[in-house]
């Protein structure tokens, strides 16, 4: 396990991703309209939606809602376009992904957000899966980690 030297790390005291109580992931499909995906994200105050295959339910990518709003503003996409036009796809070939589960220590999650765990650079969010990566259980953000630290007594 990688050691973290952040001010937050001392506040984690053995906590795991499960202690963040991440909300269930909200998934959309590539063929759904952007307007529908955006409405679902707004209703739940989500900043990211996972995009899954209609046939296999495999994780294909994600929608970053702030980025999507900018794309709509810029005219790059329209609300009547399909999600696949705006989604960010996961690169499958030749890339090793860090598995984040409910049992992942928060120090590792923080390291993942800062780019330390996988070495692939800073990340905005983590898709929380079961150990075999078959099921998406939730999404955790750096903001969730910050809120956890604020709520936790010193």
Write the SSE topology.
Elements: H1 9-12, H2 17-20, E1 27-28, H3 34-44, E2 48-52, E3 59-64, H4 65-74, E4 88-89, H5 106-114, E5 125-129, E6 136-141, H6 142-151
Task: Report on this structure.
Strands 1-2-3-4 form a four-stranded mixed β-sheet. It is globular and about 50 Å long. A hairpin with a 6-residue loop joins β2 and β3 (59-64). It is an alpha+beta fold. The chain is built from six helices and six strands. The relative contact order is 0.23.
Quick recap:
The chain is of the alpha+beta class and 154 residues long. The chain contains six helices and six strands. The relative contact order is 0.23.
Defining key terms:
globular, four-stranded mixed sheet, two-stranded antiparallel sheet, 6 strands, alpha+beta, 31% helix, 154 residues, 6 helices, single chain
Work out the helicity level: 25-40%
Point out poorly predicted stretches.
none
The helix-and-strand class reads alpha+beta
End-to-end separation in angstroms reads 24 Å
**Order of helices and strands, N to C?**
HHEHEEHEHEEH
Rg from C-alpha positions? 16 Å
What is the number of beta strands?
Answer: 6
Q: Overall mean pLDDT score?
A: 85
Shape: globular
Strand content: 15-25%
């Amino acid at each position: 396990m990688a050691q973290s030297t952040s001010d937050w790390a001392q506040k984690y005291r053995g906590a795991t991703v499960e202690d963040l109580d991440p909300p269930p992931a909200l998934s959309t499909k590539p063929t759904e309209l952007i307007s529908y995906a955006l409405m679902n994200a707004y209703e739940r105050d989500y900043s990211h939606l996972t995009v899954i295959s209609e046939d296999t339910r495999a994780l294909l990518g994600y929608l970053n809602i702030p980025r999507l709003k900018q794309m709509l503003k810029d005219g790059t996409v329209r609300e009547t376009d399909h999600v696949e036009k705006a989604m960010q796809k996961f690169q499958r070939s030749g890339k090793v992904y860090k598995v984040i589960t409910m049992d992942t220590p928060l120090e590792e999650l923080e390291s993942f957000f800062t780019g330390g765990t996988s070495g692939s650079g800073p990340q905005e969010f983590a898709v929380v899966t079961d150990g075999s990566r078959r099921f998406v259980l939730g999404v955790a953000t750096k903001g969730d980690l910050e809120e956890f630290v604020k709520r936790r007594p010193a």
